[in-house]
Amino acid sequence: LERVAMHASLGGVIASRSTGISTDWAYCQILPAHTYDEEPMVHYLNAVSSYNNSKPLQSHPPLTGWCSWYHYYENIDLSTLNANFKKMSRLKSTISQD
Fold first, then answer.
1. Which of 20, 65, 78, 90 reaches 20 to 30 Å from 37, CA-CA?
2. How many Cβ atoms from other residues are within 10 Å of residue 61's Cβ?
3. Distance of alpha carbon 60 from alpha carbon 94, whole angstroms
4. Distance of alpha carbon 59 from alpha carbon 61, whole angstroms
């Protein structure tokens, strides 16, 4: 590896190489070809977490999402969606807002 360069969009404005720019932090990760034995995003996510001083999850289980598209696919109609919204509304009171 001889040279690494990072570029920022800057809304279409070209920055002068002599004056440079100042922007948010950046992250660069160079992976060997065909690296499939681990999740490469874990290094980025750990860096972001550390930079932002994020807090660990609380003691309750993490919330997960649900998508009607993957459950019903094309077999969906308005009454089914409304039934799902009503169910989610009832479940909302059981979820901790901490």
1. 65
2. 8
3. 12
4. 7
Asked if 6 and 26 touch (Cβ cutoff 8 Å), the reply is yes
**Long-range pairs, 53-60, Cβ under 8 A, ≥24:** 58/96, 58/98, 60/96, 60/98
Rounded to a whole number of angstroms, the CA Rg of the chain reads 22
Which stretch of DSSP H or E encloses residue 90?
helix 78-92
- 84: exposed, middle or buried (C-beta count within 10 Å: 0-12, 13-18, 19+)? middle
> For residue 60, what is the DSSP state?
S
Residues 6 or more apart whose CB falls under 8 angstroms from that of 15 comprise: 8, 21
Distance of CA 17 to the CA centre of its chain: 32
State the pTM of this model.
Answer: 0.34
Q: What is the pLDDT of residues 35-59, one digit of tens each?
A: 665 677 777 888 888 888 887 766 6
What gap in Å lies between CA 25 and CA 51, rounded to an integer?
9
